[in-house]
TrEMBL record:
Transmembrane feature ranges: none
PANTHER family per UniProt: AMINOTRANSFERASE (PTHR43094), AMINOTRANSFERASE CLASS-III (PTHR43094:SF1)
Molecular function GO labels: pyridoxal phosphate binding; transaminase activity
Coiled-coil features, chain-numbered ranges: none
Database matches in Pfam families: Aminotran_3 (PF00202)
Superkingdom of origin: Bacteria
Cofactors required: pyridoxal 5'-phosphate
GO cellular component: cytosol
Signal peptide per UniProt: none
Entry's family note: Belongs to the class-III pyridoxal-phosphate-dependent aminotransferase family.
Protein name: Aspartate aminotransferase family protein
Keywords: Aminotransferase, Pyridoxal phosphate, Transferase
Length: 459
C-alpha cells in the first residue's frame, strides 16, 4: 500500500490538493473525505479499519468484485509485454484484437464492431459524433438532433451532460449544446398513478413520437436512453415501454441508442439491459462493468447498418490516445472471461438476482415512509415518501435521501441516495448469505431513519 499516514494526515493533504468530482469543496474539506484503503470481494476497508459492505460496487461498476488476482495478473503481464501502443495510423495490438473478438461473441447478435474510449462519457460523446456523421454520410445532414430523457444520466462531458436530463448540470457550463432535446422519464410512480404499468409504458413511449413530430422527423438523428435510468434513481420502465420506443424509432427512421454503461455486463441478470427489456438498438454505449472498474475503459458497439454507414464515409475523424489501451483491453478480457466462464451473470439471473429482489421487497416494504420498492437482477431501489397512502413525496426533493444515506454510511453500508430514491447496485458476485448480511444492516438503518424522521418532526 502507498505510504502509511493517519486518517487525519490523508484528509489534510486531500483537502489541500485534491479537487473531487460532484462535490462542494469547502463543505467536503471541512468534513474530510472517508479514506478507502483496500477492498476484497464485496467489502471495503477505510483508514480507520472499518469493514464496509459496498452496496454500490464502487460506482455501479465493480461487477466482478474486488481482489481478483486474475485481473492484476492480466494487467501485469500486459504491462510487461506492451504497456502502451496506439490504434491510430494503421496499427493494432493483440490485446485489443482479442478483446474485440470476445466482445463480438458476448454482445447481442448483430453487434460485431466496437470503438474504444476511456469512460462512459467519452463513449456517449463518441456516439453523438457517430450518429451525426452517419446521417451526413447518408445524405440527411439535417438529422442531427438527439433526444434524451429528463433525469437521464449520460456523463459529464459537454455532449453527455447535454444529452442527460439533469437540470443542475445544464446550469453549469452553458449546457445543453445545440440540437439536444428531452422527453419526460417513464417514472410510473410519479406520472402514471391511475394507470396500469403497461398502459403507462405505452403513454410514456408516446411522448417520443410527440417530440419527433414537434421537431420534425427529418431533423431527428437518434433517441438515447438507459434501459434502466441509474443515476436518476433506478427508474425501471414498464415492459411495454422499450418495444414501443423501438417501434416509434423505426417508424420515423430515428436511430435507437441504448446507454448500457450501468445496465451492461450482467447488472440486470442479462449481459445487457436491452435483452432484459426486449429491444434492439442500433448502437449501445458501455463502460463500468466492461473492466469492473479495475481500469478505465469505455466502448461503443455498432450494428452492421451503422458500422457500414460510417465506413462509407471514409475517414471518421475521431478518437483518443488511449482508445483500445493494451492494459485496459487485457483487463477487460479477463473480466469478461470470468463473468462468462464462472457463470456469474447466469447466477444473477437464476439465483442471487431473484433472491435479492424477494428479500429487498420483504425488508423495505415494511416501512411507513418507503414506497415503490423495485429492482431487476442486482440493481434495486425504493423511494422515500411522506405519505404512502396518497403517494406524497417529501418536500425539498433530495434532502431526505441524504439523511437516509448518511445513516447507512455511518453503519458501514454504502448505498446511494439519488434524490429521495435509495438505490443499491452491489458486486454481481454477492452471495445469498452476503445479501442477508447487507439487508440485515439496511433494516436496522431504516428503523433508525424512521425514528429520525419522527424526532425531527419531518413526518
Ligand atoms: C448511463 C451512464 N452513461 C454514462 C455515464 C458516464 O460514465 P463516466 O462516469 O465513466 O464518464 C454514466 C456514469 N454514471 C455515474 C458516474 C458517476 C457517479 C454516478 C452516481 O450515480 O453517483 C453515476 C452512466 O451511468
Amino acid at each position: 500500500m502507498s505510504q502509511q499516514r493517519t486518517t487525519a494526515e490523508w484528509r489534510a493533504l486531500d483537502a489541500a490538493h485534491h479537487v473531487h468530482p460532484f462535490s462542494d469543496a469547502h463543505s467536503l474539506n471541512r468534513q474530510g473525505a472517508r479514506v478507502m484503503t483496500r477492498a476484497d470481494g464485496i467489502y471495503l476497508w477505510d483508514s480507520d479499519g472499518n469493514k464496509i459492505i459496498d452496496g454500490m460496487a464502487g460506482l455501479w461498476c465493480v461487477n466482478i468484485g474486488y481482489g481478483r488476482h486474475d485481473m492484476t495478473a492480466a494487467a501485469s503481464r500486459q504491462m510487461d509485454e506492451l504497456p502502451f501502443y496506439n490504434t491510430f495510423f494503421k496499427t493494432t495490438h493483440p490485446a485489443v484484437v482479442e478483446l474485440s473478438a470476445l466482445l463480438a461473441k458476448v454482445a447481442p447478435e448483430g453487434f460485431n464492431h466496437v470503438f474504444y474510449t476511456n469512460s462512459g462519457s467519452e463513449s456517449v460523446d463518441t456516439m453523438i459524433r457517430m450518429v451525426r456523421r452517419y446521417w451526413d454520410v447518408a445524405g440527411k445532414p439535417s438529422k442531427k438532433t438527439l433526444i434524451g430523457r429528463w433525469n437521464g444520466y449520460h456523463g459529464s462531458t459537454m455532449g453527455g451532460a447535454s444529452l442527460g436530463g439533469m437540470d443542475y448540470m445544464h446550469a453549469q457550463g452553458g449546457l445543453p449544446i445545440p440540437d439536444m432535446a428531452h422527453i419526460e422519464q417513464p417514472w410510473w410512480y410519479k406520472f402514471g398513478k391511475d394507470m396500469s404499468r403497461d398502459e403507462f409504458g405505452l403513454l410514456a413511449a408516446g411522448w417520443l413520437e410527440d417530440r419527433i413530430l414537434e421537431i420534425g422527423p427529418d431533423n431527428v438523428a437518434a433517441f438515447v436512453g438507459e434501459p434502466i435510468q441509474g443515476a436518476g434513481g433506478v427508474i425501471i420502465p414498464p415492459d411495454t415501454y422499450w418495444p414501443e420506443i423501438e417501434r416509434i424509432c423505426r417508424k420515423y427512421d430515428v436511430l435507437l441508442v441504448a446507454d448500457e454503461v450501468i445496465c451492461g455486463f450482467g447488472r440486470t441478470g442479462e449481459w445487457f439491459g436491452q435483452q432484459r427489456f426486449g429491444f434492439r438498438p442500433d448502437i449501445f454505449t458501455a463502460a463500468k462493468g466492461l473492466t469492473s472498474g479495475y481500469l478505465p475503459m469505455g466502448a461503443v458497439f455498432l450494428n452492421e447498418k451503422v458500422a457500414e454507414g460510417l465506413a462509407a464515409g471514409g475517414d471518421f475523424n475521431h478518437g483518443f490516445t488511449y482508445s483500445g489501451h493494451p492494459v485496459a483491453a487485457a483487463v477487460a478480457r479477463a473480466n469478461i472471461l470470468a463473468l462468462r466462464d464462472e457463470g456469474i451473470i447466469d447466477r444473477v439471473r437464476h439465483d442471487t438476482g431473484p433472491y435479492m429482489q424477494e428479500r429487498w421487497r420483504q425488508v423495505f416494504g415494511q416501512f411507513d415512509h418507503v414506497d415503490d420498492v423495485r429492482g431487476v437482477g442486482l440493481i434495486q431501489a425504493f423511494t422515500l415518501v411522506k405519505d404512502k397512502a396518497t403517494r406524497t413525496l417529501f418536500p425539498n426533493w433530495g434532502e431526505t435521501g441524504l439523511i437516509c444515506r448518511d445513516i447507512f454510511f455511518r453503519n458501514n453500508l454504502i448505498m446511494r441516495a439519488c434524490a429521495d430514491h435509495m438505490v443499491a447496485s452491489p458486486p454481481l458476485v454477492m452471495t445469498r448469505a452476503q445479501i442477508d448480511e447487507m439487508l440485515g444492516v439496511a433494516e436496522r438503518c431504516m428503523t433508525e431513519f424512521e425514528e429520525t424522521l419522527l424526532r425531527r418532526g419531518l413526518v
